[in-house]
Design a protein that fits this description.
With 198 residues, this protein is α+β, with helices and mostly antiparallel strands. It has a single domain, classed as Jelly Rolls, CATH 2.60.120.10. It contains five helices and twelve strands. The strands form two sheets. Strands 1-3-2-4-11-6-9 form a seven-stranded mixed β-sheet. A five-stranded antiparallel β-sheet has the order 8-7-10-5-12, with no helix packed on it. A hairpin with a 5-residue loop joins β7 and β8. The longest helix has 16 residues. It is globular, with a radius of gyration of 15 Å.
């Protein structure tokens, strides 16, 4: 039995993949999604995200955004890079939890997806991973950097695609950013730094 907040998030995620052409083209939504035990792990960045009342998504993104915010306090927030020299700085400004996939209530194979929050005025340095990735900006804005390509400033409803092992980075300016991120392909390996200096 799935908690009502997570059931709402699952329904909204499935609808998002159907309604956003870039997500639909990127990969199929996993079927089945199986409820699994996953202990909540709070992070202070969750409080920062939930304390941003002016982050309003486009109407079509609102059901997913609202469901993700409702599930955030019972999610297992990730410790990516926590054991690196830059880890504590990163986690003071950036956080994420898995929506569908391996380390979440909504267990599935073949895809992992995440809710991501980045505070204003922060540079998430270049990093890469073997999973192919797409970002869908839900609210706020950010400057997306992809090695070998011009940087792009994106807002709600816009997407950024990161090919396999392509170094990429994210900079927020005046506004924070909330995004939905999907991985496909080699989804079991952790990301690694390409650079660690802002």
């Amino acid at each position: 039995m799935i908690d009502t907040n997570w059931q709402a998030l699952l329904d909204a995620a499935r609808a998002l993949h159907q309604d956003v052409p870039e997500l639909a083209a990127f990969c199929d939504f996993p079927d089945p999604v199986r409820p699994q035990s996953c202990a909540a792990k709070h992070d202070l960045i969750c409080d920062a995200m939930l304390g941003q009342p002016d982050l309003r998504p486009l109407p079509g993104l609102q059901p997913f955004h609202a469901s993700a915010m409702a599930a955030a306090r019972s999610a297992q927030w990730r410790d990516t890079y926590r054991d690196t020299a830059f880890g504590e700085t990163l986690h003071a400004h950036f956080g994420s939890f898995e929506v569908v996939g391996r380390d979440t209530v909504l267990g599935a194979e073949g895809m992992r997806s995440f809710l991501v929050y980045q505070a204003p005025g922060f540079h998430y340095p270049l990093h890469h991973h073997p999973a192919e990735e797409i970002y869908l900006v839900l609210a706020g804005s950010g400057e997306f950097h992809l090695h070998g390509a011009p940087s792009r400033s994106l807002g709600p409803g816009e997407t950024a695609h990161h090919p396999v092992n392509a170094p990429h980075a994210l900079t927020t300016h005046e506004s924070p950013l909330v995004a939905y991120v999907v991985w496909k392909g080699d989804i079991g390996k952790k990301p690694v730094w390409t650079e660690t200096a802002a």
